[in-house]
């Protein structure tokens, strides 16, 4: 079936799931939980590295980012001396962990972007005031 075999085989109406997904008393939560269980939804930083690519898991390396104030997202980032223009933003989320422990605290705003056909997770570390490249899949 090709690369989309898991999507084509996925049962879109599992037993017990209401047909009106967003009109339930629980709002969007059932939809989000169902999507998170699907095999094709994952963060770029969770993707395995392929032979011959420069994919990494949780790179966490500092990068330079030029902010696009009009679109309110990263517009360009520089990695290893190369400039990557952000074509589109796929997803944005925040991470707040261990706020009670100053040594382990994490406070980041992350953008999953597409640049030159690859998927990149760029995060602004609010504590260190720097941009990080967290995940890559080219």
Compact overview of the structure:
The protein is mainly β and 138 residues long. Helix content is 10%, strand content 39%. The protein has helices at residues 5-9, 29-37, and strands at residues 61-62, 64-68, 73-79, 82-85, 88-97, 106-115, 118-125, 130-137.
Features:
8 strands; mainly beta; 138 residues; 2 domains; 10% helix; 2 helices; 5-stranded antiparallel sheet
Molecular shape: globular
Which residues form runs of ≥5 with pLDDT under 50? 52-58
Termini gap = 23 Å
Order of helices and strands: HHEEEEEEEE
State mean pLDDT (0 to 100 scale).
77
- Individual helix count: 2
Name the strands of the widest sheet in spatial order.
1-8-7-6-5
- Indicate the proportion of strand residues: 35-45%
Number of strands: 8
Number of domains in the coordinates? 2
Radius of gyration: 18 Å
Largest sheet: 5 strands, antiparallel
Oligomeric state: single chain
Percent helix, as a range, is: 10-25%
- Structural category: mainly beta
Could you please describe the fold and organization of this structure?
This protein has 138 residues and is mainly beta. The chain folds into two domains: 37 residues, no CATH class; 93 residues, no CATH class. It is built from two helices and eight strands. Strands 1-8-7-6-5 form a five-stranded antiparallel β-sheet, with no helix packed on it. Strand 2 and strand 3 form a beta hairpin. About 5% of the residues have low confidence.
